Amino acid sequence: MTADALAVDPEIGLAQRLKAHGLDRVTLLAAPAAIYILALFIYPFFYGLWLSFEPKAEGASLWANYARFFSDPFLYGTILTTLRLAVPATLLNLLLAVPIAMRVRLMPNQRLLTTILVVPITLGTVLVAEGMLNYLGPQGWFNRTLITFGLSSGPVRLIHSYLGVFLSIIVAGFPFTFLLTLSYLTGIDPALEQAAATLGGTAWQRFRHVLLPLALPGLLITFCLSFVQAFSVFPSAVLLGAPAGATRVISIAAYTAAFEEYDYSMASAIAMIMGVVQLAIVAGVLGLRGLSYHGSTSGGKG
């Protein structure tokens, strides 16, 4: 019986009618998640998009906020500043995570070492930044050690600069990158690498011709997720950087517009620009993923 016939037949129950349209009880379990996404992501996004075209100044054009942003070097320069922090930090985290994950996946005490490496996730960015202030500050342990052993004549400036924020992104973002990388590398069948070793392949050749092509799609996804996390840096840029200078990232520009200038329309426009930049980078990386290997990562047939 067709879905239209079920809809008009009074003897057919509601459950059967919904099932005929692909809405069975299992499918309805996704309803809470759909409502959650609608309430906390889709609605705020479209509201912010609409608000960005409602400039605070009377009589201004719909594009006034965007025109103001791209006509002011102090504002549009925050895009490059944020990229200068997020892209190198994400690449470095990924380069560090790959060899460590390759080693950890073969260790018997993998759980213990993994637990130690992911501790920074439990601390949060604010606590990590506070710890770095105490450790790397002018009177911190690091500078005191250098001065005590005669390695430096005075405190080395490691905070309230680009380097301080960069290090905080590395510390806070590495565990996330490492866990994703470990999951992808662990999913590759060790028999494939063993077969390459049997054929005389060196460690570098096995990595380059076997492991890397198989792990590349996952590593690109890891880059995207880690980049989005790094691009939205805010507490570290304020606590460890120079918010009005070298580390004035785009999130600080949005915060300033919203809570210092009380221009929520401009803040929404900056947030939209921030989202577009992130999506452009992610789309480009995912485009490269389409050129990578898509077959099975397990041994055996198929």
Q: What do these coordinates show?
A:
This protein has 302 residues and is mainly α. It folds into 2 domains: 1-52, no CATH class; 64-289, MetI-like (MetI-like fold), CATH 1.10.3720.10. Helices cover 72% and strands 0% of the residues. The chain is built from 16 helices and no strands. The protein has helices spanning 3-8, 14-20, 25-28, 31-52, 64-71, 73-104, 110-117, 119-123, 125-136, 141-148, 162-186, 190-198, 203-231, 235-239, 250-259, 264-289.
Helicity, in percent? Answer: over 70%
Strand content: under 5%
- CATH homology superfamily of the largest domain: MetI-like
Question: Domains counted in the coordinates: how many?
Answer: 2
Task: Provide the residue-averaged pLDDT.
Answer: 85
Quickly give the structural class: mainly alpha
* Distance from first to last alpha carbon: 39 Å
Large-scale geometry = globular
What is the class of the largest domain in the CATH system?
Answer: Mainly Alpha
> How many strand segments?
0
Major sheet attributes = none
What is the annotated CATH architecture of the largest domain?
A: Orthogonal Bundle
Query: In the CATH scheme, what's the topology name of the largest domain?
Result: MetI-like fold
